[in-house]
Every structure is written in structure tokens, then in C-alpha cells.
Amino acid sequence: MSGILDNFQCPSCECCELGEKRNLVASIAAGALFFTGWWIIIDAAAFYDATEMDHAVHACGAVGTVAFFMINSISNGHIRGDTYNEGCFGTLAGRIWLLNGFLLGFGALISSMWILFGVYVVPGAANPYPGIAVFLQNALIFFATMLFKFGRTEDLWD
User: Fold this and answer.
1) Using one digit for the tens of pLDDT, what is the confidence trace for 3-38?
2) Are 70 and 94 in contact (CB under 8 A)?
3) Residue 151 CB coordination number (10 Å)
4) Domain that holds residue 110
């Protein structure tokens, strides 16, 4: 079964070809997602008091933000070994850094799901919106991280 999709090519659409504006569009879209995620949680924190929304739930968003910066601080060339690969911060250290960033990002997303269902949905809270806000914040930060990492191309930097 290997090679079943080797000759498959996606049809190209000329209206979706971004060319040199790919990095610009990916950066703006990722920034908008990141901003929207933080805006949702700030809105929920301003509207609900500490009895309805515990302040500890903000740790998920902070960890997701740290993961955003960790994942996007390493270039793809560094991971492949195309650029700087000597010394103590060579390719292996970059890959470990990227793995830790992904672990933090997935951990923040999973813990926000845990908060949503474990604190607000299953016990039957009167208003589950604070849990939904925590989950939406972390989901949007995670999608912004993936879009900013994989939506841009480094070919235009040369």
C-alpha cells in the first residue's frame, strides 16, 4: 500500500496563490488568532468574578503563549541541520527545544479541555462560558502557533 498517493497532486487555484505575500498573510492571520484568544479570556475574566472563574485557569493560556514563542523561535533550517549545527546548541538542542515547545502547547490545549469538562460541563455549572473561554483561548493560541510555524516559508528570507 505504500506509494498509493505518490502521483496525487492537489489542483492549484490561481486566486489562492500568495507568492511573496505568503509570510505576510500567515503572520497577520496568526496574530489575529492569537489576539482573539487573549481577547476572549480577558473578556471572561472581566465579566466573571473569582467564584465563577478561578484565576488559576489563566495558567493554561500563559503556558500556551510560552509554547508559541518556543516553537516559533527555531527556524526550520536549524531543525533540518542546514544552518548552524556545531556547539552545544546544534541541531539536537534545537529539536529538543522544539519538542518541549510542542509538549507545552499540547499540554495547554489538553488542560484547557480538562478545565472545560471537569469544572464546568460535567458538574453541571450554571454558566459554562468561563470554561468555553479558556478552551477557545488555548485553541486559538495553538492554531496561531501552527499557522505561524508552518504557514510561512523561509525561502523568501534568502
Assistant:
1) 565 666 666 666 556 667 888 999 999 999 999 999
2) no
3) 16
4) 24-152
